[in-house]
Amino acid sequence: MNETKPVQEIGKTSATDRDPNTSDKFTFWLAPGVIANPFDIVEVEQVSHGGKSKTFGLVTTLDHRTDSPTHLANFISSNFGELTEDPNTPRQGTTVAHVNVLSNDKDIYMPVLSERVVRFSDEEGIQIALGIDDMKLQNRIPAGLIKMSNGVAAVAYIDRRYVLGPESAHVNISGISGLATKTSYAMFLIQSILQKTPEDEKEKIAVILLNVKHGDLLQIDQKRDKDFSVEEMEMWEALGLVPKPFESDKVHYYLPRSRDGKRPNSFLEPDIRQIYAYDLESTADKLDLLFAQIPDAYFTLESIISEIKEGIRNREKDFKNVHSWTNLLSGPPLFDPTTHSAVKDWRGIRGSSIGVFRRHMRRMIQVGQSGIFVDTKATREKSLTEEMLRIKGGHVYVVDIARLQEHEQMLVFGDLLKSVYSLKADPPEDRKDPIPEKVIFFVDELNKYAPAGPRPSPLTELVLEIAERGRSLGVLLISAQQFMSAVHSRVTGNCATKIIGRSGSAEVLQPDYRFLDNEIKGNVTRLSQGELLLSHAIYRQPVKVIFPKPPFKQQEF
Fold it and tell me: Where is 183: in which H helix or E strand?
């Protein structure tokens, strides 16, 4: 049985006095019976010097027009609203598609002339339209599959140089929770990056994943229980990827300590795991991260934290007996055991301010903690700082923070960023293993750690440092959140690749989405689950892609 050839010719361009074609947009009418949809990619012949050229465009909206002057005229022609009668005045009508220009294969951006035949692009045409044909094969990373209304499919490749550097870096994913499948897409993209990296280069890339929701990322080395459907396998094959979990011997799970210290504080417990905890010695230089969400209008808390960090680091006289959280909160120099209250004055800081600091610390370290803060770590309990300074290329490190309090999550994420940035900027002198050339971070709920606002917290400053200068050190960020507008604009603005899942109309009207045309913004509100809008540095317009479900086991609810 012969396969049906996909429909190619679908209409003709149309320019009118009131609706002209421009160098950026053109319009065409569809032939009867043709079905087209927003995000289809089409092509049309263009004028050129001494030969033919093609202009490629992205369909954004479609409307149906007739020769009726008003809706009232249509109502009257149906015998004043009789639903079962044929209109007395048959109307002539057509469907008109509006197109944003993607590219021209001869770099000619004259307006498309009227009455030119419009065709659906084939796979080769789609790649020319997006500039993929100019991308070197070794730089191509499959980022999803473009599916056209006529059944044609093409891989949407993104350029490695704009994901891992040196040209640009970072990926941000946004969309409504559940519908946008943000974590699933991030994991697909990471697997795509690793699978399309040569084996010798793969050993130079380390991946750090933060598990923030249940046990989603705590079984990434396990095969999923459900077999792959034919459609899923076809999609993996079309993308040129193998549906397999991450290699067990190269995945490391770090779970937080629980209050009793007997079992990890986690939704799932992988067989091979490490437990992490925080004592004062390993946390003193990161105390400011705990206060990321606490208002400090007069920088009083910042002053106290600075004095404590210096005192512990330099073993100053005041801090000679401060070796644990209990020492810090219940002894000199901040607390007077004889009066059972905060000291009245310390280094020019008033006692009332010391009291405020102690109350916040007691709430976070003693009363409201999940169990990760300890006076003395047990032998089996690890320091994340030390573990991150030993990371190796070719390995994946999953740090679970799903059941931690919000201030604890901020400490852990900030600790990871600081440690990796320190490793890359100032490597330990005693390190023998080569330092990974690239370190990829994945974190969901980025709006917690780098929220939009005029005054960045210490943690936000860390994220900004990675977003703006991490590329030069090989530290890359793949981040996700429900609302892009809730994240600091300098973070999202430095992402060369943006992925957008279904979002509400109020959200897409925010200034953060001004890189999208108004017609495309309307389409974002109608995306289905698993459909994403891909905006990449080398694309002139965003395209709609689909991607396969994760090949590893996931926690069921």
Answer: helix 182-195
H or E segment at 61?
Answer: strand 53-66
| Nearest C-alpha neighbor of 197 from the set 148, 164, 154 | 164
List, in order, residues 6 or more apart from 306 with CB less than 8 Å away. none
Nearest Cα neighbor of 143 from 125, 163, 160, 158 is: 158
Return the sign of the alpha-carbon dihedral for residues 19, 25, 31, 34.
negative
Parts of the chain with a pLDDT under 70 = 1-5, 7, 48-50, 179-180, 556-557
DSSP letter, residue 557: -
Contact 556, 222 (CB under 8 A): no
How far apart are alpha carbons 376 and 281 in whole angstroms? 9
For 530, other C-beta atoms within 10 Å of its C-beta total 18
Count CB atoms within 10 A of the CB of residue 214.
17
What lies within 8 Å, CB to CB, of 221 at 6+ separation is 245, 246, 247, 248, 251, 270, 552
Compute the distance between CA of residue 199 and CA of residue 201 in angstroms, rounded to an integer: 5
Residue 82 neighbours by CB under 8 Å, 6+ apart: none
**CA–CA separation, 506 vs 493, rounded Å?**
20
Q: Domain locations in the chain?
A: 9-121, 168-276+379-546, 280-367
350: DSSP letter: E
- 3-state SS, 482-537, equals CCHHHECHHHHHCCCEEEECCCCHHHHCCHHHCCCCHHHHHHHCCCCCCEEEEEEC
| Tokens at 200, concatenated | 């010798």
Q: Supply the pTM of this predicted model.
A: 0.92
Which phi-psi region, left, alpha or beta, contains residue 501 (left: φ > 0; alpha: ψ -120 to 50)?
Answer: beta
Angle at 329 between CA 324 and CA 335, to 5 degrees: 125
Parallel, antiparallel or unpaired: strands 396-400 and 205-211: parallel
What count of other Cβ atoms lies within 10 Å of the Cβ of residue 556?
7
What pLDDT, on a 0 to 100 scale, did the predictor assign at position 2?
45
**CATH second-level architecture of 168-276+379-546?**
3-Layer(aba) Sandwich (3.40)
For residue range 67-126, list pLDDT tens digits in order: 889 999 888 888 888 888 888 778 889 999 999 999 999 999 999 999 999 999 999 999
Q: Are 462 and 436 in contact (CB under 8 A)?
A: no
Eight-class DSSP state of 426: S
